Amino acid sequence: MKTATLPALRVEPKLRAAAERALRQGETLSGLMEAALTSYVSHREADRDFLARGLRSAKDAREQNQYISAESVIGKLEKRLAAAKKKAGRSMAGR
After folding, report:
1. Residue 66 and residue 6: Cα distance in Å, rounded?
2. CB 37 within 8 A of CB 13
3. What mean pLDDT do residues 79-94 have?
4. Over 80: is that where the pLDDT of 26 sits?
5. Which DSSP helix (H) or strand (E) runs through 12?
6. Cα separation of 63 and 56, whole Å?
7. What angle do CA 52, 57, 62 make, to 5 degrees?
8. What predicted TM-score, i.e. pTM, was given to this entire model?
9. CA dist., res. 88 & res. 13, Å (int)
10. Angle, alpha carbons 38-43-47 (nearest 5°)
């Protein structure tokens, strides 16, 4: 596979110094920049997909005139949180 280049990036010297301090053993500045860009692009794609699902869901709810109350959603989330806390408490007690 052929590779492509990205435009040169001009930054303040303080940012470059901070990036160099963040490098791990054997890591290059180019490698850090590529990893950061890859991660950010993935985040943007997930954000776009999340918004699209939300808009599609809102459209479906309007078309079907079927809504779930905020109280119902919050109640379910509170139950899930309580169960997760209980489970976490059990796993911490076994240590």
Report:
1. 47
2. no
3. 86
4. yes
5. none
6. 10
7. 130
8. 0.65
9. 44
10. 150
- For the packed helices 29-64 and 13-22, what is the interaxial angle rounded to 10 degrees? 90
pLDDT tens digits, residue range 50-81?
999 999 999 999 999 999 999 999 999 999 99
Alpha helices in the chain (DSSP H): 13-22, 29-64, 70-93
Give domain limits for the chain. Answer: 11-64, 67-95
Alpha-carbon span 42 to 34, nearest angstrom = 12
**Distance from C-alpha of 33 to C-alpha of 80, rounded to nearest angstrom:** 38
Burial of 90 (0-12, 13-18, 19+ CB in 10 A): exposed
30 confidence band (pLDDT: 50, 70, 90) = very high
Give the end-to-end CA distance of the chain in Å, rounded to a whole number.
49
Residue 6 has which token pair?
A: 């990205």
Query: What's the maximum distance between 2 C-alpha atoms anywhere in the chain?
Result: 57
